[in-house]
Amino acid sequence: MGRRLFLSHLEEVAVAPPTGVSGIHSPDEGLTAFIFSYTKADQPCSCNLKLLMTDVDEYPEGNTYMLFTDDETADQNITNTLDTMTAVLIGQPLANALIEISRSLLSAVTHGQASNPIALDVSDPVEQEEEEDFEDEFLDYDSDDDFGFDIPSTRPASTTGLGAASGSHQRTSLGGVADLQKIRSDLRATKQAGFRVGTHGDLLTGGIVCVSIRVTRLGISEEAMQAWGLRRSHYLALMIRFPRGYRDLRQVRADAVLSGQTEMRVALCEHYKPSREAAFEAFGHVHAVKTEEGAALEALFIGSPLNELLRDRFSRILKFRESYGSNWPSAEAFVYGVQGKAVSAVDHLAVDDYMLPDDTSGKALPDIVKADAADGQNLTNVSLPLVAMQFVLRHFVRCTEFCLVCHCKVEDTFEALKPYVCSRPLCLYQYMALGFGPSIEWEVLSQPYVVDLLVSFCYSAAKQGRLKEFPVGIDLKVPMLPHYSNNLAYRSYYQHNTSSSKAKAKTYACTFAAKIDHRSNELVLETDQQQQIASLRVGDWMVICSKDNTTDSHYRVEGIVFPVIKLGNPVHTNGAVKSNVVVEDIRALAKHPAAQSTARPSTPPGATPSATDAVECYCYDSRFDEISSTEQQHAISLLLDVLPRVTDMQQYLQQQVGHEASLKTWRDRLPEPALNLLRWIIASNRSCIMQVDHLAQDKKSVSMMGPTNDDRVGGMDEWMQFRFAQGAPDKEQRFIDAVNRESSGKQYPTFFAWHGSPIGNWHSIIRQGLRYDETLHGRAYGNGVYMSHQALTSLGYSNMHHGDGSMTWPGSALKITNALSLQEVVNVPDQFVARYPHYVVSDIDWVQTRYLFVKTELKHINNNTGSAMEYVQDPKMAALGESGKAVRVPTTVVSKSRRPATGQASSKHGSKKSKTTTMIDQATAEQLEDDANSVVSDEEDLALLTTDGEDSDEMSIDEDYSGGFQGALQTTDSTTSSKKRPLDAGETDFQPGTVDVSNIKFLPPPADATPSATKALMGAFKESLKVQESTPLHKLGWYIDPDYIENVYQWIVELHSFNHTLPLATDMKKADISSIVLEMRFTNQFPFAPPFIRVVKPRFLPFNQGGGGHVTEGGAICMELLTNTGWSAVTSIESVLLQVQLAMCDEERPARLIQKNKGHAGGRGDSYEVGEAVAAYERACRAHGWQIPEGFSQFAMTQTGGPHL
To answer: Which CATH number fits domain 688-695+704-896: 2.30.230, 3.30.70, 3.40.50, 3.90.228?
Structure first.
């Protein structure tokens, strides 16, 4: 009924279209295309638009629309308005929807949008009147009925509004009842949850909140970072714009969709917040002012789907969560299940059917990703920026679990590294139509040989009948040629062909017959053939075959003036399409695509060069979705036959200047179905494949990102190598956990093994993983992933079914003949399903794919410098190459958390950089570097987050110390003293709690202490204790005894467990001491000023006597990091102590002790005084030109007072 009604309405509105709308037609089922016309600057303008129905059977009440445009010349105001139209069009008949679209777009292009949405003058009477109208509208809209379906609340309504609770003296936002106290409370809650918070504008009248987090804190694997285009310096930023003032979570959850009152955008930035101009540009407000460097926004690879999800569903998901106390999975499932349904239908739904368990269990995700501030809470008391950011993290970090279009959980059992769509054809269509997938052009330009690899795998799979997934739902139109009746080349190694050779073959008639004039590229038809080409349009493609069916070429229709059809230049297929015909190799022609557009006349290969030939024409007019799987695979191989070489496409894109490079413009060479098929091949690849080699044909190209030649595996010189990663973003962490759990303590915790498979299988392997649910080569040794330590064994399986070369994509530059993958495996062979003659592993968390090797006709350039460290393999289980010798695997193949740092934390001595001995992994070293490079929050943001107002609920300095520092410490979850933890027996001679503090001067809290500094120090101290509790002492190397910390501005720290090969460790052993005692003092400027660190005891050898380690003659630790010149407000105490340790371990000038007395000295002669340390520090700063921190003089003053015990 709905379908017929829609067609009836379409016919009516096409005859009498609304004002401003014309050209209404339906190019596909459920899709309405039309032209919107308007006048701008007295000039007529138009824009091509498309209106997609999500459920034509439920039209109109149960249907929702998706409005979009692929018109690259569309006005910016139009494209901005399209995003806001979805909610308005729900349940509308087609005519009403078009009227609303025309009205809204006309308003947008006529009035535009405000150039400065935050410039609101509260005293302006016009604005006050608009404010009253807005408040009335909000009061009317803030009801369950306006949610789109009626959800009876199961929670008591709040009896006190935020505005009433805050008092009449509080400033209130124009957007509703939120006052400054509520805004500050929400932002502080967000910051305390671990996020950076920034603002632009006055949030009471209109501004933007930016919540961000560095992507390296999200537990995303290195492979996922590469696949998603992320850098270590990136912050994931969520911007929330309030045009009329801040709105809290309770107000937002009442909206049907987010629109003009609250808007959200997600992007990447190298600053914790973008510049003001960049932030407003993200919402469509362009400013002429140039964005400052480092604060620009970068597009997120799934930015469009995330922004759409926030706009269309976030508020409704919140409402369901509050009404039923549900979690994220339940609310998301319910909102998707009821969208487009009438209220009466929703009333009868069983809500219990949508109640799902929490979906974070069993996932190796950081706590900040799994946190849920809305769990079990009344939304009145929860922070909107915090909950919104947690929702974003759920769909960003775990993006591979959700469909990019409908946002539902995907059903695939394969854990992908790249996000994609679910199995619904409509989702795939929208994914392609709306441009959610990866950019073909970027892939071709940056990694052409990866694209070649993907196309080659797909071609071989189609030729061998091994395709399992097809590009259905993207409206592919293909020709139906006679050879489609032939059997596909694949035959199972274990199964006989059961098809009857006597079965009658299906016949395929041509669309029409004609004569072609090769000189003018024109088809000439008979006078009675006009009906046969009635559906033919300019821009359509066809395959023209000779009458004897021996040659074929593809042509684009350039013009139709019956009985003549004007054709473009012929595109010859790259390979034979009939098994019994050998077509001339025309690869040389593909090297010069420009020649194909100018050469006339052109005769198909093998054809007689006469004036005209009788030919048969097969139009691209069959719907791919409606033909059989065998025909589909024939059609795919045909489209790939006509696809240009990847290097030719790269050259074409490089020649485009003055506009964004696009393959769509290559209309006379690249059929649209072939282009869409190429996009599907690239987009459906859910693994990360990065080219390692530079090829002989590619000397000038430089890889934009990813591995280098030092990542090559040695001993596989004849193979082209790719870094290859599969699995969910947390798969690497799960593998690391398995290593730690199953083989911790082993000398060789992992080993490497090969997997081989025929070329036709790799298209599915890179999309579905090394699955073992299909028996292809037998399963004689049990179910699991089959691997071997010998490459020759795996090669035996890779060579199967390859045939005579006809399975290879003719346009390939690689010409792949074999493929192998190299996996890292947890070294527990006794727990495998089988270990001989093959390794058979059933637990996929024990297997991590690392490399893909392909044998090609091309020769790689081995620029391996040999500088990469080699991974030490178990000699008994080493991976053997073709030669039978063990291959050399670089350490860069394993996770950074398992690689030793290689001088990342070097130290400076004057202008000379010295090497240091590090005992940390590379991931930690990079995190320390990232922390040091983090930028300080703006003063305005700090004032909003830390300044205490008259009614502030932040504790004062007196409250903080009302029970003493130890009392404050006991109120936390900072656990117990480290003295109670088990000792690292045999690893260190250090004994916690044995330090002599008799000659240490303990001070009271400084008189000028501030709440913000005290709070920051409390947080730093608690975090340090947590690290100390969770890390073995001998690995940590420092110890803080909480019993000796009575003043948070003064810490006593011991350094211990130095590498026994260091001179300092030798001196300590001779002196019979196990630790170096340090004192750290902080000013009220912390965290914006560094601490002062000095050695208390023992005394060190001065620099002029052969000492070093950045310890001055007075005992002060003097390094640029501990001055205003080198300090950063985000530097952690852990990183400071690590840098001090590394400085003392300097290989060129290590720290040395003055050898005097044995044992822990109690006399002053073995200890430093504060005064001499202060004086030495000031001398060093002046000598190096370093800025002395503000308030440092207080350290010198405090040393004259007596001890405070």
So the answer is: 3.90.228
